[in-house]
């Protein structure tokens, strides 16, 4: 093999988008893995936190059919600002403004009290960009499936119920961007008896 040949020559015949986007995506996976390396999920097994952002990106690509690189990178990075020492400026420098902006739209302001953050998500979600809606939908689908699987350590039945109810209100404002995601959200809220809340007209844009 001629090692002096440019790397991209090995990809001849493959669509340009694929060649360009895979290294970028792996850069995001590696960045998120480093940032979340000390964090664990709240489940009894204390699953490594990175399973969550990778799973969110997988829902977008494998279940929703999304191939937009900016949305997939933002999915991988979506909790880095909210849950680690990462700044938007850092994301913008490494991944560019469009990715950083989607992450910003998906990040709660941790300086606000929890109840206020939850209220703001219901209010702001219908007005988010299409890419932010894709990432937020996959984020909620992942967390709600996780909640159906096992309860986070210390969560009471009431807290779990409240999370499902609040999520149905948020997800209602996410409808209409991707038919597959709409169906996956609808399936969860059907199982939870929350179809009416999810389909309520006042929650959508
Ligand atoms: N279901 C579930 N969630 C877990 C687990 N471990 C960590 N989480 C995270 O907990 C958050 C939901 O818990 P809350 O009590 O509502 O939020 P908070 O920790 O940020 O205050 C989610 O954050 P998020 O991704 O930022 O989403 P969201 O709160 O904006 O929906 C979710 O990713 C787990 O084992 N199961
Ligand atoms: Mn998340």
UniProtKB/TrEMBL annotation:
Gene3D superfamilies: Hypothetical protein af1432 (1.10.3210.10). It holds the Pfam family HD_4. Residues 45-153 form the HD/PDEase domain. Its cofactor is Mn(2+). The keyword tRNA processing does not apply. It catalyses: guanosine 3',5'-bis(diphosphate) + H2O = GDP + diphosphate + H(+). SMART domains: HDc (SM00471). ppGpp hydrolyzing enzyme involved in starvation response. PANTHER family: GUANOSINE-3',5'-BIS(DIPHOSPHATE) 3'-PYROPHOSPHOHYDROLASE MESH1. This is Guanosine-3',5'-bis(diphosphate) 3'-pyrophosphohydrolase MESH1.
